[in-house]
Design goal:
The protein has about 80 residues and is mainly beta. The protein has strands at about 5-15, 20-30, 35-45, 55-60, 70-80. The protein has a single domain (about 5-80), classed as Nucleic acid-binding proteins (OB fold (Dihydrolipoamide Acetyltransferase, E2P), Beta Barrel). The protein contains no helices and five strands.
């Protein structure tokens, strides 16, 4: 499932059953001053096996609408969060 563009992000919430909230960061240039700013967007993603945990860096891909807010599917975990 999912043939759209791939997006990288960090899991910020994993309380959902078969779902996670992912923060995706992008850099934009200010229109007048040209300073580079960080902008963060949060997306819901479908995680079939519940493998992603808070702090993990994941790759997700666009898919058909799975629920009211879910439009992405987790494809792989790139880097696990450090266990303290």
């Amino acid at each position: 499932m999912g043939k759209g563009r791939e997006v990288l992000g960090v899991v910020v919430r994993d309380k959902l059953d078969q779902g996670v909230i992912v923060a995706v960061e992008r850099h934009v240039s200010h229109g007048v001053y040209g300073k580079i700013q960080r902008r963060t967007s949060k997306f819901m993603a479908h995680d079939e096996a519940n493998t992603a945990k808070v702090g993990d860096r994941i790759a997700m891909v666009e898919s058909r609408p799975l629920s009211r807010r879910k439009r992405y599917v987790v494809t792989r975990v790139i880097e696990r969060a450090e266990v303290i």
